[in-house]
């Protein structure tokens, strides 16, 4: 691929590289620095502090960040002065009436439930999630925790914790729409597609508060709650389970937030402006 980039340089006007971390990004930027755009998808993680990353972030002509929190975090280490920048992310489709779809029948028997969607592993905060759920579920014996996605860790022998494996897009939308809230416990995120997908079906999010991109979704969209310890997790769940008006208001706000910032039309417009600006 790197050879093709060097060989075909004159055939393309712009080069967009996704994720700062990898071989193809480093050598691709080196080959086409003047025409390149970087979408970093960066977390505050150890590789970001390698000396070589100053070269990676020094080469692009423009940057497209997932969130303002990601941009601010990177700006503490790298200079973007004089280079085109925008906060973009990715597009999210808002499905029509997911609770009325045939797929919803699979999830209704579990209600009320909290939902986690994604890789199920300690690195995503899932061990903490299971501990927090154990604590809050003692006061709510009817509450379940549903997990969908790739299982990469053992689960406790708890009849209220249900692993449902991989599901279709229609099933995921229905599962999110019927949840009391979706949980996003990761300490490392630059955007979190699952959070936006939850907001797109009017379900509030409950997020790890030390993860600034997640907390910004809650603040900017007025669409969810956050926690930084088990006690805060329990209080937030109590509010979401006990106040339906709050839950519905957060859900409406979340859909409006996605429609304003994360429709595909909005994302593509921003890329069009970018391509016109980088010459």
How would you portray this structure in words?
The chain is an alpha/beta fold. The chain folds into 2 domains: 2-91 and 264-277, no CATH class; 98-261, Rossmann fold, CATH 3.40.50. It has helices at 2-7, 23-31, 52-58, 68-75, 126-137, 169-178, 193-200, 212-221, 230-242, 244-261, 264-277; strands at 15-18, 36-39, 62-65, 84-87, 113-117, 144-148, 161-163, 181-184, 205-208, 224-227. A 6-stranded parallel beta sheet has the order 7-6-5-8-9-10, sandwiched between helices. α7 (193-200) packs across α10. The model has no long low-confidence stretch (mean pLDDT 95).
Which descriptors apply to this entry?
Rossmann fold; 4-stranded parallel β-sheet; alpha/beta; 279 residues; single chain; 6-stranded parallel β-sheet
């Amino acid at each position: 691929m790197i050879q093709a980039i060097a060989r075909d340089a004159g055939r393309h006007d712009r080069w967009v590289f996704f994720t700062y971390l990898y071989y193809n990004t480093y050598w691709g930027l080196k080959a086409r620095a003047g025409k390149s755009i970087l979408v970093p998808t960066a977390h505050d993680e150890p590789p970001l502090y390698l000396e070589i990353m100053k070269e990676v972030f020094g080469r692009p002509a423009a940057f497209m960040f997932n969130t303002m929190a990601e941009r601010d975090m990177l700006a503490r280490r790298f200079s973007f002065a004089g280079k085109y920048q925008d906060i973009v992310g990715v597009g999210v489709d808002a499905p029509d009436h997911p609770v009325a779809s045939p797929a919803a029948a699979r999830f209704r028997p579990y209600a009320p439930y909290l939902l986690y969607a994604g890789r199920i592993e300690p690195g995503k905060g899932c061990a903490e999630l299971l501990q927090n759920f154990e604590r809050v579920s003692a006061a709510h014996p009817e509450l379940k925790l549903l997990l969908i996605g790739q299982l990469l860790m053992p689960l406790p022998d708890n009849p209220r914790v249900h692993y449902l494996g991989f599901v279709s897009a229609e099933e995921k939308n229905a599962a999110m729409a019927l949840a009391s809230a979706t949980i996003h416990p990761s300490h490392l995120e630059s955007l979190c597609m699952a959070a936006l997908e939850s907001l797109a079906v009017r379900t509030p999010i409950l997020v790890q508060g030390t993860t600034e991109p997640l907390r910004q979704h809650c603040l900017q969209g007025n669409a969810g709650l956050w926690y930084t310890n088990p006690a805060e997790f329990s209080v937030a769940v109590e509010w979401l389970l006990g106040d339906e008006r709050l839950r519905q208001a957060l859900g409406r706000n979340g859909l409006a937030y996605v429609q304003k910032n994360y429709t595909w039309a909005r994302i593509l417009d921003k890329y069009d402006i970018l391509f016109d600006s980088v010459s």
